[in-house]
Design goal:
Bound molecules: aspartic acid, magnesium ion
Mean pLDDT: 93
Helix content: 40-55%
Oligomer: single chain
Number of helices: 15
Low-confidence stretches: none
Number of strands: 16
């Protein structure tokens, strides 16, 4: 079997965890499987690189040097704790030194110019995965296996130039990935590809959006027609609710691509929202598993499944730190184009809309945005829309959250919404806004942030999600 496996940053953050990751790879190889490895940056490293690029852009030399030193220390310590073989350690040390030098030069240029472009930022962010993959590759070689690490771009992941959130050009990438990776697999060399980054057709480095290493893994799997993708994590898989909020939350065993994507969009940071796209057509199964609980099969994500009647709802998601905006005016009734104007203003200014609802009376449009863009959104809308004939009032609330009920079994099952809102009402929770996607895969609503956890608990109970299916 050909397996593409991705290791998350937490699994690369300590010597013993890296050793565990290598052990897992070795087990598959010993069983006769071919393996392609994708790795994230060591946890927190991407955040530190973002900080470093900010410090650089405002020429805070002292802070900048401190961050670089710490990144250097972190990776060198990992390297020396894991690698026993002297030659391998020597090679790795040289490699890490030259990467650090390159990163330093780049950040220092930004600091001198006081200019950080999206393009230079992507280049800076790509270093996290280069460090981790160099280390992981050496650790695999240290175990006597053959391996070679390369960047996403070198492996063949070609994207458009939407820096920070680049989209892969799938046909071109597919071809290139096959050219690059197949010969290595034929020689029993394990390819190790940096997650999260690719490059434009001209060779400029891009990143695929935060958490993008999952996406890297599925792009590669679909290009090489892999048998399975395994996303190795420290948690057992997708859960019925956030276990920090719901003590009876359990791992979901089987879920469809569509449901899992819905959960990803709705805030569970277990999987990248676009990551499932490349594998859906080829029906390549994706498993999320814990590297520390190999007895647990984790969550299996596959094509549609037979929905058991009990499983109308699969999971309750919860997004914190949301802001709610309400645009209203009695003249909005029957006036086309108001919604278009609202969303164009927000879109042009890079504000992400999480949820939209318009009553059929058309007197208002409500929508939710991430809380940190709320005041910007309100200012822009006031500036552009007030003072005319149509929009009379723009109001907002900043202390709200989104609760989303997700499950393919809701489709065509009457009465689910009634159960949802009855369960919430019985806890005395006031619902501020409601939306249901026309896919009927989710019902989402907004409540005060303080009421969010209570709503999650009530729904988890109502749909008996604690019961193993
Ligand atoms: N290192 C990147 C991030 O932290 C990508 C990833 O973790 O998948 O967002
Ligand atoms: Mg990550």
């Amino acid at each position: 079997m050909l397996i593409v496996m991705k290791f998350g940053g937490a699994l690369l953050s300590k010597p013993e965890k890296i050793k565990r990751s290598v052990e897992i790879i070795k087990n598959y190889v010993n069983k006769g499987d071919k393996v392609i490895v994708v790795a994230s940056a060591v946890s927190k490293v991407t955040d530190e690189l973002i900080k470093a690029s900010k410090e650089a852009s405002s020429s805070n030399w002292e802070n900048l040097k401190k961050i670089i030193n710490e990144l250097e220390k972190l990776h060198f310590n990992l390297a020396k704790d894991i690698i026993q073989n002297k030659n391998i350690l020597e090679d790795l040390t040289l490699e890490l030194k030259s990467l650090i030098e390159e990163l330093k030069e780049t950040l220092f240029s930004v600091a001198r110019l006081k200019e950080l472009t999206p393009r230079s930022k992507d280049f800076i962010l790509s270093f996290g995965e280069k460090f981790s993959c160099a280390i992981l590759c050496a650790a695999i070689k240290n175990e006597g296996l053959k391996a070679k690490w390369m960047t996403g771009g070198e492996a063949g992941i070609i994207t458009n130039d939407e820096f920070g959130n680049a989209k892969p050009l799938l046909d071109l990438s597919s071809q290139k990935l096959n050219w690059k990776l197949t010969p290595l697999l034929n020689e029993n060399i394990i390819p190790i590809v940096t997650g999260f980054n690719g490059c434009t057709p001209e060779g400029v480095v891009t990143t695929l959006g935060r958490g993008g290493s999952d996406y890297t893994a599925t792009i590669i799997a679909s290009a090489l027609k892999a048998d399975e993708v395994v996303l190795w994590k420290e948690v057992n898989g997708l859960m019925t609710a956030d276990p920090k909020i719901e003590s009876k939350a359990r791992t979901i065993r089987v879920i469809s691509y569509a449901e899992a994507s819905e959960i990803a969009y709705f805030g569970a940071k277990i999987i990248h929202p676009r990551a499932l796209k490349p594998v859906i057509k080829a029906e390549i199964p994706v498993r999320i598993r814990s590297a520390f609980n190999l007895d647990d099969p984790g969550t299996l994500i596959i094509k549609e499944q037979k929905i058991k009647p009990k499983e109308i709802v699969k999971a309750i998601s919860f997004i914190k730190e949301v802001g709610l905006i309400n645009v209203s005016g009695s003249e909005m009734v029957g006036t086309p184009g108001v919604a278009a104007r609202v969303f164009k203003i927000l879109g042009d200014n890079g504000i992400n809309i999480l949820m939209i609802s318009q009553g059929s009376s058309e007197v208002n449009i409500s929508f939710a945005v991430p809380r940190d863009s709320l005041s910007k959104a309100v200012n822009l809308l006031e500036l552009n829309l007030l003072g005319g004939e149509t929009v009379k009032e723009i109001s907002s609330e900043s202390d709200v959250c989104i609760v989303a009920v997700v499950g393919a079994g809701m489709k065509g099952t009457p009465g689910v919404a009634a159960r949802v809102f009855k369960a919430v009402a019985e806890k005395g929770i006031n619902v501020r806004m409601i939306a249901q996607g026309s896919s009927e895969l989710n019902i989402s609503f907004i409540v005060k942030e303080a009421d969010g956890p209570k709503a999650v608990n009530a729904l988890h109970e109502e749909f008996k999600l604690y019961e193993e299916s």
